[in-house]
Amino acid sequence: MQLYPSTGIASVKLNVTIDQNFAAKVFVHRIELCSDHQLWKDLPTTFDSIINIQSLLSKLERYSVRVGNYENDLIDVIPIGSAVQHAKPASTNCHGYREGHRCFQCSQLRRILVGRKYRQEEKQRKTQETSGPTDYLHSKMQHSNMSKLQLIEKIHQQKDKITNLQNQILRTRNQFQREMASKGVTLDFSQSLEIKDTMATCNAEMEKACPDENSSQRLFWTEQMKCMNLQSTKGMRWHPMILRWCLYLRQKSSAAYDALRDSGFITLPSSRTLFDYSHYTRSDNGFLPDVIKVLQEEATKRDMYSTEDVWKNYVGILFDEIKIKSDLVYDKHTGELIGYCNLDKVGNQIMDMERSFKDSSSNDIAKYMLVLMVRGVATDLKFPLAGFATLSITADFLYPIIWKAIRILETSAAQLKVLFLTCDLASANRKFFNLHGQVNDFVYFTDNPFSEDGRKIYFVADVPHLIKTTRNCFSNSFSHLNTRKLWNNGKDMSWIHLLTLFEQHCEMSLYTPCPKLTRSQLDLTPFGRMKVNLAAQVLSSTVANALEMMYGDNVSETVNFPRIIDKFFDCLNVRNLYEGRNKRNPNLNPYTNINDERLQWLTGDFLSYFDLWEQSVLQRPGAFTDKQRKDPLEQHFGHYRHRAGDNSNPTVYDVRHMMTTMRAVGAQALAPQHSNINNKENRNMVIDNSRLPKRGNYF
């Protein structure tokens, strides 16, 4: 037992247990020693005799538990999520010194913490001397260097700043309106002509600055000039690209669009005009004939029905669920309550049958929206096909919906060839795949009864979801939730290795072997877990090389794992013809041959790595249960969440209308620059002169 001043509670220092299978475990402050600790070296694997037990206890006497760095003022400066937190109040890997003294590692860490504490106190003192209270909103104030009380103080400062900014905006708006009322000048006819002549004079300069007639800047200037030459904007016929851009802006924030339009700096279409284009067809659940007609026109614009380039006709179906707000919304146009579960004709019949079994007549209010999107294989087609309000989708509901979508795309006016289905590997989706094969078979394709050429449909897992799931599982190995203890070939695969690399060689060092490794990649916040780029940066060959260089063979399995995943992600992340050449990474080169070495690696070495890993775990010596031996390893939805304002979970009504609007917006619905899946690689705007559908004259 030992009492630590930081907690005021007595703690069990050392505990040795031997279970019924004669396997020994050693706990230091209730933390189990890892299997690669040198204590176990030269000791037997089972302790079924007095001699073996005496050898363990004798070796334990040569070790001692260190006091570590338990002081409160030092614990407060340890970064959140640090590997040091998993070792306090004492270091479990120390040995060879008298009790009460610190080992070399703890002493070295203590110097780092004392230095950090001194720098923080010195910075706070200088700040208070020069500017009074500490400004926690400054860009140099990082969360990793702030205590809990400092983070709370920052929240209070943010609230005060928001209040001040809102008051300042209100004062500025009132002042602007008073100035306009008192000093505003209305131009007469002659002065208005002079303004128009001035814009006409600048037109030559604009054409010189933007020589490309198909550029978005040139189009915007031309539309503004056209509007200036009209006596009334009611007669303005806006270009379809301007309408799509305005629909996209208003979808993001209607208040911001109205403020931009009312500012007087530029002329934009009215909200009433945009309403006709965003409500050109009825918004509803399921497959709508009008939507199929729009899909056909989008495919025609991309030349997907060409008899020469038949490869343009191939598409895939992406499907996933988005969490929505469980609520009922009254539609004043149709008089119905929107928000109940609606899974098309077959799905609704199954739900009615289940209600009859439960002897219940009440309808379920939806919690999710299942969205199906058509994605072109060789074109940029991204078209939201249908949405369904669900309580939580299951395989029996998913089966008729997906196959109806395939039938519509293959046999209706759309006439598109479905090549694959892509989704995350949720349990319902995995079960849906398995419905197309025999029990215990690995199912990755099925026959397509609607194809004329005997084409198959392939089931493809969403690679970004796989990378994030792999990173999340790896992060819980000996760290975070500590729900996994990954192991292979006699060595642990621990997230602590990454934390130790960062804290010892990246955070406090001028020279860093891994410059891209940051605290945000290791301290997984709820939003950080959604970002694919953070997961890909952690599971990268750069991190693996740094681990190998600093710690050698001791972390060989932790090194092999990110290397394998990094190559896997690169092989499935080929986006254009030149990225592999520009980044000097052959794994990103385009595929031009079915005998490509990467395809052989994916089906050979990559799968063999996990087979050998499984065999190693199953043959691991020791008393482990079957569960312990199993070491388990949205761009489109962002528009719905943004449209909902402060509420990130839209209703069924919101999602239905946003799908209709995005079908009209088309390619303008770009992903944000800083989303979990960015779209920086292909943001070149193409001027689309095709007619935009409008309510009342389209169907």
From TrEMBL:
EC number(s) stated in the UniProt entry for this protein: 2.7.7.-
InterPro entries with a match to the protein in the record: TNP-like_GBD, TNP-like_RNaseH_N
Enzyme class: transferase
Region described as Disordered: spans on this chain: 119-138
Domain Transposable element P transposase-like GTP-binding insertion as annotated: residue spans: 465-582
Bias type Basic and acidic residues, positions: 119-128
Entries under Pfam families matching the protein: TNP-like_GBD, TNP-like_RNaseH_N
Signal sequence, renumbered to the chain: none
Keywords recorded for this protein, A-Z: Coiled coil, Nucleotidyltransferase, Transferase
Coiled-coil annotated residue ranges, if any: 148-175
Domain of life from the UniProt record: Eukaryota
Listed GO MF terms: nucleotidyltransferase activity
Domain Transposable element P transposase-like RNase H per the UniProt entry, residue ranges: 285-436
Name of this chain's protein: THAP9
Organism whose genome encodes this protein: Mytilus coruscus (Sea mussel)
